[in-house]
Amino acid sequence: MAVIGLSFVFMLCSIGAGGDAALSGTVVDLSGEPLADARVFLQTGPDQLLREETASSSGRFSFDHLAPGLVGIFAIADGYAFGGTSVPLAVGETRSDIEIPLSPRTSVAGHVVDFKGEPIESVRLSVLLIQGDARVGLPFAQLAARGFAQPTTDIQGRFTIDRIPEGAKLCIKASHPFYAQTTLQDIAAGQQDVELVLHRGKVIEGLVVS
Q: Which has more confidence, 5 or 94?
């Protein structure tokens, strides 16, 4: 009985290992030159922890032991903006062709107000970065623990989002405990007059049954 149990555990481990996916690639500038020591981040889902690797002297990076599904991968290097994409991975698939081009950096700025036009302080902002057909979420709540401050409004409701690539589009989501979440799309990189209007949130209670 003990031998059968051990074999069963080994079989499960083998199946799990066979289902792992992996990806690798290169971080480059817009001329195609590799960017050494770029920081590369990977997230397998909005509620999953970030993984981080440092690109080699030739700009190469790799991540293994990945579950199948859509993963977000993005990078940043000194003097450059964030850049990245989302990659679908099948069970056991290995991708080695991922290229992350990094662009010169700019910013987006604006303010957040309520429906009366009054500024709202301490609104936290998250970003979906769109570069052509590529798009990736920048989870600033997790990046804050890695040296990147989460964009938050000041007492005048003002905010600035740095390290945005030139020519990109943004989708910004604003969150505050007393207001409903609000999303604003098609914001151009470099725009300095973004306005988000938040409305008071309401609590909805109910019962979930089978």
A: 94
Q: Which residues contact 154 (CB under 8 A, 6 or more apart)?
A: 121
Taking the CA atoms of 175, 180, 186 and 191 in sequence, report the sign of the dihedral they define. Answer: negative
* Per-residue pLDDT band at 115 (split at 50, 70, 90): very high
Q: What is the pLDDT of residue 1?
A: 47
Confidence of residue 136 (pLDDT cuts 50, 70, 90): very high
Question: What H or E segment, with its residue span, contains residue 111?
Answer: strand 105-114
What pairs with residue 10 in β-bridges? none
* pLDDT of 10 over the 50 cut: no
Contacts of residue 48, defined as CB under 8 A and 6 or more positions apart, other chains included, come to none
Q: Tell me the two tokens of residue 95.
A: 């991708």
Domain 21-102, CATH homologous superfamily name and number: Carboxypeptidase-like, regulatory domain (2.60.40.1120)
Q: Which residues pair with 112 in a beta bridge?
A: 196
- The position carrying tokens 């709540």 is 141
CATH fold for domain 105-198:
Immunoglobulin-like (2.60.40)
CB-based contacts of 199: which residues, under 8 Å, 6+ apart? Answer: 114, 115, 179, 180, 182
Please state the φ and ψ torsions of residue 15, each to the nearest 5 degrees. -65, -45
Q: Which residues contact 81 (CB under 8 A, 6 or more apart)?
A: 102, 103, 104, 105, 106, 163, 164, 165, 166, 168
